[in-house]
């Protein structure tokens, strides 16, 4: 069995001014983790393990600046002393095979656990077999950049406690800011990282950026309140179709997360088309109905993923509210083909709020 794992990125809330928090400059990334099983009381490599370790050796040779960590284990049958010796022999067998297949001894370390770190109960044949094992991890030290930031209210500029979901090619996780919206993070240096920011009763925000050694981030969130209009960025359609461009498809799950985390308003999903330099198309026209179909595509997605129908509606606006009424470039025309979120009613925790 072979699986891949991401490395851990540290996210630390801001400390009080007089307090210092230690944060490492590097983190270890696990490129792969390979499992090797052994027969009872033996340290000879099984035929399937020979194939697995040979493939792993070939993979290691293609990598630069990596370390290999071998851990070896036994079941609980026999004395602790004998199991430690057996564990050592299993580690030596794996290490010897890797060296024989061209892997430098200098990059391999071994940890011997004997019966001390079981992954299954030792009260069955199946459990004991899972414990008669060695693991081979390919590790790479990953430099990290330090980013600090804050999430604030668009109008008051005050901090907001928020949830931040982050992702890169090697890691995906989430963390919360402190009560004033502040955070500090350690991110994989040189990678493109995406941040999606959510807070109750606020529209969401997202940013993509390449991680440098030090950076500052600020997320400004508009409040969910009656009359607010929120353009869904990066949600663009194929011309003349109610069909999303492939690059836009990841935006729908973000919109779903926003709706799942917020019950502060009833929203209208508003669809628009691109018809520059022309008067508004009539509601009975095919073009106008296209704007309706675009809005309904988003509505249907949310409905199918558990958002209640009484929290939303959909409506088309044709070309009457284009962002660029005289658009000439494809980029501007693409922005006219859009869907927006409009808050039609205030609602807090399912209770209708009084008119302001």
Summarize the structure.
This protein has six helices and 17 strands.
β-sheet strand percentage: 25-35%
Radius of gyration: 28 Å
The fold-level CATH name of the largest domain is 60s Ribosomal Protein L30, Chain: A
User: What is the CATH domain class of the largest domain?
Assistant: Alpha Beta
Q: Which features would summarize this protein structure in a list?
A:
single chain; 356 residues; alpha+beta; 60s Ribosomal Protein L30, Chain: A; Immunoglobulin-like; 3 domains; eight-stranded mixed beta sheet; five-stranded mixed beta sheet; 6 helices; 33% strand; disordered N terminus
Describe this structure in words.
- Helix 2 links the parallel strand 4 (67-73) and strand 5 (108-114).
- The strands form 3 sheets. Strands 1, 2, 3, 4, 5, 6, 9 and 12 form an 8-stranded mixed sheet that branches. Strands 13, 14, 15, 16 and 17 form a 5-stranded mixed sheet that branches. The chain has a 4-stranded antiparallel sheet with strand order 8-7-10-11, covered by helices on one side.
- Mean pLDDT is 88; it is low at 1-24 and 349-356.
- It has helices at residues 47-61, 80-100, 125-131, 251-261, 286-304, 330-336; strands at residues 2-3, 11-12, 26-37, 67-73, 108-114, 133-153, 163-167, 172-176, 182-188, 192-198, 205-210, 214-221, 229-231, 265-271, 312-316, 339-348, 351-352.
- 22% of the residues lie in helices and 33% in strands.
- It is elongated and about 85 Å long.
- It folds into 3 domains: 28-141, 60s Ribosomal Protein L30, Chain: A, CATH 3.30.1330; 143-221, Immunoglobulin-like; 229-352, OmpA-like domain (60s Ribosomal Protein L30, Chain: A), CATH 3.30.1330.60.
- The protein is α+β, with helices and mostly antiparallel strands and 356 residues long.
- It contains 6 helices and 17 strands.
- The termini are far apart.
């Amino acid at each position: 069995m072979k699986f891949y794992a991401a490395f851990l990125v540290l996210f630390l809330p801001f400390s009080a001014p007089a307090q210092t928090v230690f944060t490492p400059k590097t983190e270890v990334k696990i490129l792969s983790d390979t499992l090797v099983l052994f027969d009872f009381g033996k340290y000879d490599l099984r035929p399937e393990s020979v194939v697995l370790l040979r493939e792993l050796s070939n993979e290691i040779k293609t990598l630069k600046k990596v370390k290999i960590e071998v851990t070896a284990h036994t079941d609980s049958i026999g004395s602790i002393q004998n199991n430690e010796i057996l564990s050592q022999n299993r580690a030596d067998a794996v290490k010897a095979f890797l060296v024989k297949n061209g892997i430098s001894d200098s990059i391999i370390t071994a940890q011997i656990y004997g019966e001390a770190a079981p992954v299954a109960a030792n009260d069955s044949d199946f459990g004991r077999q899972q414990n008669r094992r060695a693991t081979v991890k390919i590790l790479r030290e990953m430099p990290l950049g330090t980013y600090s930031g804050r999430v604030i209210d668009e109008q008051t500029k005050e901090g907001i406690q928020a949830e931040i979901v982050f992702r890169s090619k090697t890691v995906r996780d989430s963390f919360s800011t402190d009560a004033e919206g502040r955070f500090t993070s350690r991110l994989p240096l040189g990678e493109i990282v995406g941040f999606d920011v959510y807070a109750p009763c606020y529209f969401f925000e997202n940013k993509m950026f390449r991680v440098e050694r030090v950076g500052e981030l600020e997320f400004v969130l508009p409040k969910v309140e009656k009359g607010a209009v929120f353009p869904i960025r990066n949600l663009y359609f194929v011309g003349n179709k109610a069909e999303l461009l492939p690059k836009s498809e990841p935006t729908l799950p973000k919109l779903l997360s926003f709706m799942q985390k917020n019950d502060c308003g009833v929203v209208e999903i508003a669809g628009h088309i691109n018809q520059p330099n022309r008067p508004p198309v009539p509601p009975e026209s095919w073009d106008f109905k296209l704007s309706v179909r675009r809005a309904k595509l988003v509505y249907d997605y949310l409905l199918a993923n558990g958002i209640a129908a009484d929290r939303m509606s959909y409506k088309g606006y044709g070309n009457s509210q284009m962002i660029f009424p005289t658009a000439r470039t494809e980029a501007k025309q693409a922005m006219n083909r859009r869907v927006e979120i409009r808050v039609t009613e205030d609602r807090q925790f399912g209770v209708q709020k009084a008119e302001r």
